[in-house]
């Protein structure tokens, strides 16, 4: 009987935590603005790519023509859109530390690991649904604007093409979890955003291409390079595994960082 009561109590606490995190997410303006920006970037870039490819058909030489592929059509969502989602996920943690709300959260829910897991999954699932729908919408928008000639490669046939669509949702989920973890580790909005958006994927990983043979040996083990490999992006890197192996590698990397965040959150004072 006591075990049943304990389980019921634990379930109730988890449900209350989910409700509390949902209220935090929907009661402030930043999540709504981030959602609008993600939609605008995803659909806007798809429209630009579609229109540009159609305009390029007026060029006489074939080399000057632009034929977008599926992964290119959804790059606004997979690239810029997911970056904005990561900002939203990071701020969900760092803003609570900044204003001292995290102490109240941990007092209401002493299980700090559960708070971090619920926060990451809530934003991750939201981001996965949003980016998954946007990826499909971006594809059809780019295809419609490109026309039959320029949009000859915009066809959802084969595993590679479909992976460029549903892979965005998986990537967004993992990136949201990663952003929550890094936010919990650093506790500072500026540092977290700079690391996740500028230093890590855009600068640090790009620098390895400048280190000759050593850089080429390291590149297959870079986390965001593996994520892009899963999404079908050509990067000139000789990976040791296929796209699904890259997804597993990136997921393990996210899991390790998140586990480190759980340890730190439970050991440090709020």
How would you describe the shape? Answer: globular
Number of helices: 11
On the 0 to 100 scale, the average pLDDT is: 84
The major beta sheet can be summarized as: none
Which segments are poorly predicted (pLDDT under 50) over 5 or more consecutive residues?
A: 1-9
Distance between the termini: 35 Å
- The assigned structural class equals mainly alpha
Count of extended strands: 0
Kindly state the percentage of residues in helix: over 70%
Beta percentage is: under 5%
| Multimerization status | single chain
Question: Gyration radius, to the nearest Å?
Answer: 21 Å
Compressed to H and E, one letter per element, the order equals: HHHHHHHHHHH
Description of the molecule:
There is one protein chain. This protein is 80% helix and 0% strand. By secondary structure, the chain is mainly α. It has a domain at 28-189. The protein is globular. The chain starts with a helix and ends with a helix.
Keywords:
80% helix, 270 residues, mainly alpha
Structure described in brief:
The chain is mainly alpha-helical and 270 residues long. It has helices at 2-27, 29-55, 70-73, 75-99, 101-108, 112-150, 159-186, 189-207, 212-218, 223-231, 243-267.
Give the arrangement of secondary structure elements:
Elements: H1 2-27, H2 29-55, H3 70-73, H4 75-99, H5 101-108, H6 112-150, H7 159-186, H8 189-207, H9 212-218, H10 223-231, H11 243-267
Helix pairs in contact: 1-6, 2-4, 2-6, 4-6, 4-7, 4-8, 6-7, 7-8, 7-11, 10-11
């Amino acid at each position: 009987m006591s075990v049943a009561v304990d389980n019921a109590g634990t379930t109730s606490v988890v449900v209350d935590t989910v409700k509390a995190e949902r209220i935090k997410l929907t009661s402030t303006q930043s999540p709504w603005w981030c959602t609008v920006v993600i939609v605008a970037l995803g659909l806007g870039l798809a429209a630009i790519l579609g229109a540009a490819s159609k305009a390029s058909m007026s060029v006489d030489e074939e080399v000057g023509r632009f034929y977008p592929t599926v992964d290119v059509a959804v790059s606004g969502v997979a690239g810029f859109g997911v970056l904005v989602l990561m900002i939203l996920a990071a701020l969900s943690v760092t803003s609570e530390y900044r204003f001292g709300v995290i102490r109240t959260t941990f007092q209401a829910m002493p299980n700090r690991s559960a708070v971090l897991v619920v926060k990451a999954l809530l934003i991750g699932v939201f981001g996965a649904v949003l980016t998954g729908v946007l990826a499909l919408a971006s594809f059809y928008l780019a295809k419609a604007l490109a026309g039959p000639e320029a949009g000859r490669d915009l066809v959802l046939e084969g595993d590679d093409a479909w992976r460029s669509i549903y892979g965005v949702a998986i990537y967004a989920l993992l990136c949201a979890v990663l952003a929550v973890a890094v936010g919990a580790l650093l506790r500072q909005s500026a540092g977290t955003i700079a690391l996740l958006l500028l230093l890590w994927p855009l600068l640090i990983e790009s620098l390895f291409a400048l280190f000759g043979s050593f850089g080429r040996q390291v590149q297959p083990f870079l986390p965001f390079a593996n994520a892009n490999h899963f999404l079908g992006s050509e990067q000139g890197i000789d990976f040791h595994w296929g796209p699904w192996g890259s997804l597993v590698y990136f997921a393990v990397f996210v899991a390790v960082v998140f586990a480190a965040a759980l340890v730190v959150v439970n050991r440090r004072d709020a």
